[in-house]
């Protein structure tokens, strides 16, 4: 463990149907290793043009502070992701991504920081800006609020619930 706290952004996406408990479980496990500082709003992202809840996901970003180093944090994030089997045996969808770790720039086979798709996905950048708008992207030299303002509008997604409701456990 590092002698000082590190600030991170973590993206979490789970199935909308039945995903609320899964999201709370992820947050409890993260809270065992640090402190959840803030949470973005939770958005419902539809995966089909029919916009049915059965094929939608809950997505949000948390700002998290921890004494864990970057390798330990990556291990924690990966431990929360469960690979599912195909077809009817597939487990619930769960994706957890380490978006940023302090102002670290890293390119390795296991981890790229900041997460390359963070600024390309309008919903992820919007959630990231809600959770930590003043974070200055180390490559673009702009804070997340500025990047979010210039991002395309979010399509196939809508506000679902306040993020604070998941953190109050």
Description:
It is a single chain. By secondary structure, the protein is of the alpha+beta class. It is built from 5 helices and 8 strands; from the N terminus they run E-H-E-E-E-H-E-E-E-H-H-E-H.
Instruction: Give the helix proportion (percent range).
Output: 25-40%
Give the beta-strand count. Answer: 8
What Rg is obtained from the alpha carbons, in whole angstroms? 15 Å
- SSE sequence, one letter per element: EHEEEHEEEHHEH
Instruction: Decide which structural class fits the backbone.
Output: alpha+beta
What is the percentage of strand-forming residues?
25-35%
**Unreliable sequence segments:** 85-89
Given the C-alpha coordinates, what overall shape results? globular
Measured between the Cα atoms of the first and last residue, the distance is 26 Å
Major pleated sheet: 6 strands, antiparallel
User: Average pLDDT across residues?
Assistant: 88
Oligomer: single chain
Number of helices: 5
């Amino acid at each position: 463990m590092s002698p000082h706290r590190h600030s991170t952004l973590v993206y979490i996406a789970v199935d909308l149907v039945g995903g609320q408990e899964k999201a709370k479980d992820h947050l409890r496990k993260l809270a065992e290793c640090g402190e959840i500082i803030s949470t973005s709003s939770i958005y419902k992202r539809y995966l089909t043009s029919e916009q049915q809840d059965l094929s939608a996901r809950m997505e949000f970003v948390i700002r998290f502070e921890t004494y864990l180093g970057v390798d330990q944090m990556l291990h924690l994030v990966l431990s929360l992701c469960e690979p599912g089997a195909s077809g009817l045996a597939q487990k619930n969808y769960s994706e957890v991504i380490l978006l940023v770790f302090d102002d670290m720039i890293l390119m390795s086979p296991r981890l790229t920081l900041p997460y390359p798709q963070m600024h390309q996905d309008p919903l992820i950048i919007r959630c990231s800006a809600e959770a930590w708008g003043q974070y200055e992207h180390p490559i673009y030299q702009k804070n997340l609020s500025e990047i979010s303002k210039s991002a395309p509008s979010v399509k196939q997604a809508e506000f679902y619930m306040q993020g604070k409701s998941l953190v109050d456990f």
